[in-house]
Amino acid sequence: MPAAPPAAPDTTTDVVLVVDFGAQYAQLIARRVREARVYSEIVPSTMPVAEMLAKNPRAIILSGGPSSVYAEGAPSLDRALFEAGVPVFGMCYGFQLMATTLGGTVDDNGAREYGRTALAVSKAGSTLFEGTPTEQSVWMSHGDACSAAPEGFTVTASTDVVPVAAFENDEKKLYGVQYHPEVLHSTHGQQVLEHFLYRGAGIEPNWTTTNVVEEQVAAIRAQVGDKRAICGLSGGVDSAVAAALVQKAIGSQLTCVYVDHGLMRKGETEQVEKDFVAATGAKLVVVDAEKRFLDALAGVSDPEQKRKIIGREFIRVFEQAQLEILQEDGPEVAFLVQGTLYPDVVESGGGTGTANIKSHHNVGGLPDDIEFELVEPLRQLFKDEVRMVGQELGLPEEIVQRQPFPGPGLGIRIVGEVTKERLDLLRDADAIAREELTRAGLDRDIWQCPVVLLADVRSVGVQGDGRTYGHPIVLRPVSSEDAMTADWSRLPYETLAKISTRITNEVADVNRVVLDVTSKPPGTIEWE
Ligand SMILES: Nc1ncnc2c1ncn2[C@@H]1O[C@H](COP(=O)(O)OP(=O)(O)OP(=O)(O)O)[C@@H](O)[C@H]1O
Ligand SMILES: O=c1[nH]c(=O)c2[nH+]cn([C@@H]3O[C@H](COP(=O)(O)O)[C@@H](O)[C@H]3O)c2[nH]1
Ligand SMILES: NC(=O)CC[C@H](N)C(=O)O
Ligand SMILES: [Mg+2]
């Protein structure tokens, strides 16, 4: 039977729910709440209110969204949510929905605002705005506006075009703002959010990564019991942290499995064996699966097809490893631990109404017939939060600060068919780029630097007075906070020049090196 999609075990008491109405920023809201040291999780707006309340949330935040509250079929909420005594904070669409549900007025009255807007606070000492300036810069993105607050609410801020830009009802503990306090451009946004959490909802800010460790260890013990688990270990941060958490929870019931699928970079396998085992003492099985992956990928150029094949083959290799482990005495191996993070889930279309951008091998790329039950203790977190958990667990800096490398590896960095020959060529070019970036001391400045081979593109060059007709290599250095958005890194020209010269000199068949200067969006970090 296929395993049900895993829900993160709910062991927290002080959870704040972020109800997602298809917002651009739902994950950012959840993250800002955690930055305020309060645990938060995102739930879809289609979840019945009774189910939301059954999670015993200490507070609920309603996100923005693309719909108009008065449009037919627009997402709505049962009024019971506002009558349950749970503090609620609405932002943009969530604010408009609170207004209309409770008897206020929202319409398309031409009061559009997009981007930076001056907010005038009319009630300086209010729950939300205490200690913030009466004139502050906020980020708006709306076409509809609230012209009358519901009864019992005090209007606490306005703008030049919107008379009701914030309202508060301390008695019912209901609050709302038309703008987006969660984005950095709203200068006092974090303070306003914290005021809601601490003053409005009375929550103590005591959630830390120590809580994550304790809660996840308890949840993993409860989930796995006395059975055994394997963990896909890649040498990356996420799986190292996931493995360390599970190791802490169930000790020798865990075996780590590193899959050498032939799509890794130079020296990677040796490094995993050395670093990870040395740091944690975990049991590690290394599987050489190069032939299996390359055979399965032969003739395939379509990125999504590659991702699905790679996701499937990973699981087949884990199943084989399971059979081997079963030859030793002991209980069933029923669980597969993966270092899946929140962005992997969102990009695979696993958020609420979010589009499938690309199927991450460990989420959207999983085959339907997977029999393992998944253990994914990091599924709600962002990378920098995972790094903090890793530090908390005492993992060494070399692991915690490593740049990300995607599970499908160089397979999604060859635009065109993946062959052994092309992989070897790309491995050489990648090793040169990494060596020069490290030498220039740039590793901590960039998030990661994919090196991409345009295998189906050729261009004319001249080398040693002769004509060449070779392939271009693309350098894609980016800076990012959480991989959801990214900018291209402004690397020093000398470093770029050195990388370019060395790649064209040392890697046969490459006669051109180009730099990708696209942010995300519109590009993604990887090319496929
Ligand atoms: N070569 C591999 N062998 C075994 N498992 C792997 C391999 N590559 C990826 N995985 C599994 O897939 C998960 C997702 O991969 P991903 O690259 O996002 O995470 P990571 O490698 O752990 O960290 P990072 O994002 O820093 O590279 C990993 O956490 C791991 O469980
Ligand atoms: O384990 C992974 N499996 C995948 O299928 C995958 N696809 C992209 N990535 C990594 O995710 C981050 C965002 O990448 P994109 O901007 O290309 O979507 C970047 O850090 C990418 O390297 C993956 N990691
Ligand atoms: N960002 C939002 O939540 C926008 C809400 C609504 N769609 C509007 O345009 O007013
Ligand atoms: Mg990785």
Task: Describe this entry's structure for a reader.
The protein is α/β, with parallel strands linked by helices and 528 residues long. The two termini are 31 Å apart. Helix content is 32%, strand content 22%. It contains 14 helices and 23 strands. Helix 1 links the parallel strand 1 and strand 2. The N terminus is likely disordered. The longest helix is centred in the middle third of the chain and has 24 residues. The strands form five sheets. Strands 2-1-3-4-11-10-9-6-7 form a nine-stranded mixed sheet, sandwiched between helices. A five-stranded parallel sheet has the order 14-13-12-15-16, sandwiched between helices. The structure holds adenosine-5'-triphosphate, xanthosine-5'-monophosphate, glutamine and magnesium ion. Xanthosine-5'-monophosphate binds next to loops. Its EC number is 6.3.5.2. Catalyzes the synthesis of GMP from XMP. Homodimer.
